Every structure is written in C-alpha cells, then in structure tokens.
Amino acid sequence: MSDPPRLSRDSGSDAERRLARLVEASQRDVGSDEEVAALESRLIPLIGPPPSPGSTAALPKTTSVVGSGLVKVMTVTGVAAVATAAYVFTRQPAPVPAPSRAPSPALTASVRPSASQPGPSAPAVVEATSHAEAPPPSTSTQAAPLPSEADLVGEAQSLLATNPARALALCDRHRRLYPRGVLVQEREVLAIEALERLGRHEQASARGTRFLDAFPGSAHRSKVAAIVGSR
Amino acid sequence: MIPPRLTSRQVFDEHARYVLRVLKYLGVREADVPDVSQEVFVTVHRKLAEFEGRSSVRTWLYRICRNAASDHFRRAHVRREIVTDTTAPESVGLDRSRDDGPRAEARSTLAFLLEHLDEAKREVFVLYEVEGMTMNEVCDVLGCKIQTAYSRLHAARAILTDLLADEALEKTS
C-alpha cells in the first residue's frame, strides 16, 4: 500500500493548504541554539565534548584542556564511559552545589537531576535506607564544594579494579547525596561489582536482586543478572 | 565489515532538535522539556549498546521520547500542555504569536490545533505530516496496522481542516 499524498500548500481546500503551510513552517522550526546548548551542557558527562570548537555548547573551562581521546573513551558504552568522562569534565571550581533534591545552577555541567519532579527512582530498598547529607550552610565560606553525581560515579569507576573498597565508599556517598539522581543505576551496578570484588558475594547478590526488581528494563540488567545468577 | 557503533554524542548532534520538537508535540510543557529531554538522552546512553539498527534512529528515539513523556506525565501528575490558558486567544488564528518568530508561532498554532486530537490521531499526524516518516515507519513506531494508521491520519486531517475552516468562517462573518 503506497503512502497517501502528504499535505501540500498547492492543492486541496483552503483549510488544507493552510494546514500544509502550518506544517511546513513547523518543520522549519528546529528549535533555538540556546535550547540545544543548554541541553548539551547538561549532558556533557554522558555525551562528551562537542566535536569542534565551533559548537554551541556552553562548555566548562576545563574542557579545553582535555583531548579528543576522551571522545574515544566515550564510544565504549556503559558505566566506564559515563564515569570517566564525567570525572574529567565536571572537575571545575564550581560554587557549592546543592544535593539533588534542590538542584543548583552550579550543576549544569554535570548530569543534573530533574528539577520539576523526582528524578528516576532509585531502588525502593536503597532509598529507604538512604538519607541525604545535609547541604553545607549557605553562609559558610569554608564549605568545600560537594562533588557532582558524575564526580562520584566517575571516581568510583576509576577505582573499581584497584580499590573496590574505596569505590564502594564513593557509591555509598553518592547514594546519600543523590538518592534520586540520574546516575542511580550506574552507581548501583558499580556498588554491586565492588561488593563482588571484595568477596562479599551475598551482599552483592542481594543488592543485585533489589536492582533487578527496581529496574526491570535496565540496560544493565544482563550484567547484574549474571552476578546474581552466579550465586 | 561491521559499521561503527553510534555514540551518544552522534545521536545528540544529529537528533537533539528532533527530540526537543517531539517532546513538545507530545504535550510536554516548554518548561519541562529540558528535564524530560535530559532523561531521553540518559536512556539513549544506557540503551545505545542494545540498538541494533533494525529501525531508524528516529523511530527508536521517538519511542524513547514517548516513554519519557508518559513517565513524566504519570510521575509529576502534570497535564499535557493545553494551550487554552489565559494567554490563548478565543480563536485558533495565526495571531497566536509569541516573541520567538513566525516558525515558533506556526508550531505553537499547530500545537494548539493538535490538542483537539486524541493521542492516537495526533501521533500519526505528527509522525507522518510533520516529521515526514513513511507510513511503514509510523506503524513501526506506534505498533499499529497500516490501515489503522491511514484511518487515523484521515480523521486527523478532517478534524484539523474543520477547525481551520470554522475559524475562517468566523473571521468572515
């Protein structure tokens, strides 16, 4: 069956031609550069830097010193790619960001939790045991900047092979700071792998089971299922 | 030779504007589009390794947008954008202008008209007429039979042209 003729501004009734003109104009409305740049700046930890200096993204200054090698790292999909890029790209002298429940503009260079509603839900059991660290007093001049989500997950990833205990601690810190963060799944997978590497198989399996219950459609499901299933 | 895998960066560079546009047509409010589009690309990154290229990237992205919008509506208990607030004029005329140019104005007007369609008809109309997909692609995205898609498109066009014709009559009366 061939496709029906599309609307055309040159044929049909007046109303059809008018509708066609609206459709055509809408097709040419490709969104503003500002919209795209704002989205890009949020996603740099995931997608990497723009391919050329001419990009519209509002990059943090630190990106200028990172080479294209990172883009190659990003082509390896998965936690490592997210984490490595995030770790490098969000290292910047930022003002103190608030935890995910009160997103701050300072987080715009990291993967930022959604502002208008709770972020992607974490496993219920995890959330039940988590409690966000209190944000530093806003009046304090001595408060150290809180790490971004991507900082924590990135560092945990980089330490997973050599220091799983430290990686696990970083995952726990992420859980306290960002119980509803957008990198919850990646954090949980890292924590499960860290537990496994530490020989804490029962805990890895239990946490993996909770993960599978909470994220039945996760792209990380097969990896976690393998760990759980190996018990 | 195995083609190189897509990267999240490539998907973003080639389709960011498409994602933003689709979310708006799906009824996500302008103010919520940044958050929902962020979720779309987080999902893209997570699932990119699973994308086997059996469908086009755009149809794959549309499904992700659809799910993200649906989750957004359910989670936040927000309504679809209904452009019948206090700023909307009484008619559906092209004077629904905002400050961002005639193209955005056209999209805004079309979005207003599309609110008169149910979701099924609106999706077919947007994918076929606005996004230029083939009917097979539309059916692939929506999981419906081609006769169903034809029927929805026909009904959508009829409703939209009636709205425009009625408005034209109002202007001349």
Quick synopsis:
With 231 residues, chain A is mainly α.
Describe this structure in words.
The complex is a heterodimer of chains A (231) and B (173). With 231 residues, chain A is mainly α. Helix content of chain A is 50%, strand content 0%. Chain B is mostly helical. Chain B is 66% helix and 0% strand. Chain B contains seven helices and no strands. Chain B has helices at residues 8-25, 33-47, 57-76, 101-114, 119-130, 135-142, 146-172. In chain B, helix 3 (57-76) packs parallel to helix 6 and helix 5 (119-130) crosses helix 7. The longest helix of chain B is centred in the last third of the chain and has 27 residues, at 146-172. At the A-B interface, helix 1 and helix 2 of A face helix 1, helix 2, helix 3, helix 4 and helix 5 of B.
Major β-sheet profile of chain B = none
Contiguous low-pLDDT stretches of chain A (5 residues minimum) are: 54-110, 114-132, 134-141
Helix percent band of chain B: 55-70%
**Oligomeric state:** heterodimer
- Average pLDDT of chain B, to the nearest integer? 80
The coarse silhouette of chain B is globular
In percent, how much strand structure appears in the residues of chain B? under 5%
Which value, in Å, is the CA radius of gyration of chain B?
17 Å
The strand count of chain A comes to 0
Compute the gyration radius of chain A: what is it?
22 Å
* Shape, principal axes of CA atoms of chain A: elongated
Largest sheet of chain A: none
Poorly predicted runs of chain B: 81-99
Q: How far apart lie the N and C ends of chain A?
A: 53 Å
Note the main attributes of this structure.
heterodimer, A: 231 residues, mainly alpha, B: 173 residues, 7 helices, 66% helix
Secondary structure layout plus pairing:
The complex is a heterodimer of chains A (231) and B (173).
Chain A lengths: L13 H15 L4 H15 L21 H6 L4 H11 L34 H6 L19 H11 L4 H14 L6 H14 L3 H14 L6 H9 L2
Helix pairs in contact in A: 2-4, 4-6, 6-7, 7-8, 8-9, 9-10
Chain B lengths: L7 H18 L7 H15 L9 H20 L24 H14 L4 H12 L4 H8 L3 H27 L1
Helix pairs in contact in B: 1-2, 1-3, 2-3, 3-6, 5-7
